[in-house]
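Q: Could you fold this chain for me?
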Amino acid sequence: MIPGVSTVLLAGLVCIALVAGVGITTLGPGGIFVTVALYALTPLPSATVAGTAHATFVATGIVGTLVYARSGELVGEDGRGMAAILSAASVVGALAGAYLNSFLSRDLFGVLLGVVASLTGCLLLYRQRRELEPVVTLDPASRRGQGALGVLGFVLGVASGLVGVGGPVLAVPALVVLGVPMLLALGVAQVQSIFIAAFAAAGYVAQGAVSLPLVVLLGVPQVVGVVAGWAIAHRIDPGRLKVALGVVLVGVGVYLVA
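A: Sure. Below is the predicted structure, expressed as structure tokens.
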């Protein structure tokens, strides 16, 4: 038994984690549901919420990377190059974000998490109604393209480390806007998420802000969901799932900010 968390609530968290795993590999946003649930449904401090969530994202990132490598998205030079640059830059950002979290009150953490949730939900709905169009075409082989990926990786690392959301939440739409194909963006984001989550979690472990029982409880169903989500992403158009997740995230975000 985890102090302050009932058996019924634990069962609910497991279900949320399963759905979150599906979202991670079908759309990108998914792990954020775990962070929101830990914040809204438990009395855990904000640092423990973020640290515990990131610890589970290490496992989902590894499994997500393996399944997308298996289906070929990470075999080409572009995929490997983008993943390497984003991941390296994200490490510094994730550590910085985890450090900055120690200065946030629980209420301010909730507001920031709500803003991220709402923006993510709005973006999902927009992507369903009108597909994201590339603003520029990124050339990962050029110095300019590599520099842009480095800056993007650092910014994503800070944001993810600060509020405890996984890399794919922000990385997938950002990469699509930069002209990266959807499945490739999903695959690259899985690799990046390993490094963001691992180094952010390390920062939170140093603060004593990770609940190992919850990591196990929520990590296992998320991994199951990740494999299921990868299969869904390759077999169907997850349009309805986009709408459902988008509406829920907007509602949750407004609730957290209010």
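A (continued): The chain has one domain: 7-257.
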